[in-house]
Amino acid sequence: MADVARAAGVSAQTVSRVSTGHPGVVASTRQQVLAAMQQLGYRPNSAARALKNGEFRTIGVIIFTLSTTGNSRLLEAIATHASRAGYVITLMPVATPTQHGVLGAFTRLGELAVDAVIVVMEVHLLDAAMFVLPPGVHVVVVDSDAGDRYSVVDTDQADGARQAVQHLLDLGHHTVWHVAGPPESFAAGRRATAWRCVLEGAGRPVPSMYRGDWSAESGYRAGLLLADEASCTAVFAGNDQMALGVLRALHEKQRIVPRDISVIGFDDIPDSASFIPPLTTIHQDFAEVGRRCVETALRQIRNQPVEPGTSLVPNRLVTRASTATPRTA
Known about the structure:
Layout: H1 2-8, H2 12-19, H3 27-40, H4 46-53, E1 58-63, H5 69-84, E2 88-93, H6 99-112, E3 116-120, E4 139-142, E5 151-155, H7 157-170, E6 177-180, H8 186-201, E7 210-211, H9 216-227, E8 234-237, H10 240-252, E9 262-264, E10 281-283, H11 286-301, E11 309-313, E12 316-318
Parallel strand pairs: 1-2, 1-3, 3-4, 4-5, 5-11, 6-7, 6-8, 8-9
Antiparallel strand pairs: 10-12
Helix pairs in contact: 1-3, 5-11, 7-8, 9-10
InterPro entries: HTH_LacI (IPR000843), LacI/GalR-like_sensor (IPR046335), Lambda_DNA-bd_dom_sf (IPR010982), Peripla_BP_I (IPR028082)
Keywords: DNA-binding, Transcription, Transcription regulation
Organism: Micromonospora antibiotica
């Protein structure tokens, strides 16, 4: 740092402020210091800075799977917003969703020195009715029912499902069939409950629900069965991947979408506009979820007031070509 200060013609304190991103440095001076850092190959010593300031500028992320579209997009959003705030993330996958696995991940993150932890808790634990985290840890939870104990951020799963079902009813469909996600998923449960409530509230019959596992293959299997349901004119798939499988099955069974059966998904993945036909779906704002997660974690790190509770990010309907008025309407 002293070498950089001499090369830039500034004090060591100014170099320190530049290296930590302190706002109180004139732009021209900042550029002068950065140029000296680059010329000398200087890299700030994060370990020494952590010992001095008590901050590691690292946020841990505990996650059960990276295979789902939602989790991968959420992780990207968390990493992006953490980076903008000058933080890095340490990823800690947990192979089995158990209380023991979560606590083990917390222990490991503690050894790696993080300032806060974001837990992507998208499924129920196998060995506990609710998960309990160690006291004194800055924690933000995603996609969970733990809002009474922790700061939780999630998209409004129930309202998104309501929008999907209501869209199909408004088009004139008598009822809506549902291909739900796996039973252990919080999101799948909220979407299925909302689907049922909208139909019951409208005085419509509630058909049998089909279960999938978020994959296109599971949607395909359900779609083959739905194609044989003579009264089925509308399907709400729990995510876009399962909707893709439903579309394939209906095509193979020569059921034209949306002439014979309308299909709506959930997520609005980048490829959904390129399905055949382009998929009507519910857009989830993963970038906003990631931003709120990081913002809440930073508020805790800075000892700013953060109350337990759930922050819901709204969803919106994206209408494309896979839904239409039924022929019998």
